[in-house]
Amino acid sequence: MSVVLIIDDSITIRQGIKIALKKASLFDDYLEAREGREALDRARSTQVDLILCDVVMPEMDGFQFLEELKKIETYRDTPVIMLTGQESVEKKIRGLELGASDYLIKPFDSGELIARVKVQLKIKQLQDDLREANERYRTLSLTDYLTGLYNRRHFMDMLQQEYSRCRRHNAVMSLLIADVDHFKSINDRLGHLKGDEVLSRAALVLKDNLRGHDTVARFGGEEFSILLPMTNGEEAAAVADKLRRKIESELKSVEGLNGVTASFGVAAFPSPGLETLEHLINAADKAMYRAKEMGRNRVVLYAGGDPPAFSEV
Question: Are residues 121 and 237 in the same domain?
Fold first, then answer.
């Protein structure tokens, strides 16, 4: 529903504007205010698409209104057409600098009013479309197309940030790497569509069984990575085992398969021998491969040492 806010201390002018806009069928709802403070209250209670505002008003004038309006996040791009009986260039410049989109000199022709309103609505629509497209692009750039999880690149950025935070504050964190067992066999026997279904369902299980501040991503192929902030190795291994059991339980019903399982590798920072983020990733990866070697469908925790030690959960 499109909404316009008309601000003028003259009820006659407000009604004239309202009649002209209604004839053009440009809006579904029409809000009115006699000065800036009242208009701000209206704007806060109902989101509007365009504002027509007089410059000279009692209590709070049009310029003060513009300054206050632009402090509201949702109104930073809302078009505001200023109404004035003065043709002062200085006042026009001031209004434009404060965020006004256009000016109309009173008395104005209703045809000119409609034309200017249509232009501003068109500009707003283009801005909204661009913002939506940018948001879609941003989402696509951060997520994996198949599972809807974060992609590897974005996960690595978040992992680096958390790793740096842990080093600064002597905090703990853990990294899980999970790999769907026998995934190549699933693709070879049942086709890639069935493989995609397995990955999508496994991703949903992981996402639905983590805390709000944990991060899960598709790391590549059939691998998933999970960042657990403020979690030591033993706690992370318990989380990994819960996720392993959830996948085994909730993917039993995949048609054509006797069941789906996953192997998990866990590494925590700080741990002996893990001096860099690359060491942490390698340790979790090696722990995951050790889980594969030990028979799959299990969790292995990196325990440090030289040569490195691993323990099954």
Answer: no
Q: Which long-range contacts (CB under 8 A, 24 or more apart) does 75-80 make?
A: 75/43, 77/124, 77/127, 77/131, 78/48, 78/49, 78/50, 78/51, 78/124, 79/50, 79/51, 79/120, 79/121, 79/123, 79/124, 80/50, 80/51, 80/52, 80/53
| Greatest C-alpha distance within the chain | 87
Residue 147 lies in a domain: no
Q: How far apart are CA 181 and CA 109, in angstroms?
A: 73
Three-state DSSP state, 103? strand
**Which residue among 104, 138, 172 closes a domain?**
138
Q: What letter would DSSP give residue 182? A: T
Show the domain range for 94.
3-138
How far apart, in whole angstroms, are the C-alpha atoms of residue 133 and residue 142?
Answer: 14
Q: Name the residue among 165, 162, 150, 201 with its Cα closest to residue 180.
A: 201
Q: Angle CA(283)–CA(284)–CA(288) in degrees, nearest 5?
A: 115
For 265-285, the pLDDT digits (tens) are 999 999 988 989 999 999 999
Cα distances (angstroms) measured from residue 73 to each of 70, 95, 154: 7, 19, 27
Structure pTM?
0.68
Structure tokens at 302: 């990196």
Lowest mean per-residue pLDDT among 57-61, 180-184, 196-200, 287-291 = 57-61
d(CA 201, CA 168): 37
For the annotated catalytic residues, the residue numbers are: 222
The answer to whether residues 192 and 248 belong to one domain is yes
User: What is the spatial distance between Cα 263 and Cα 292, in angstroms, rounded to a whole number?
Assistant: 6
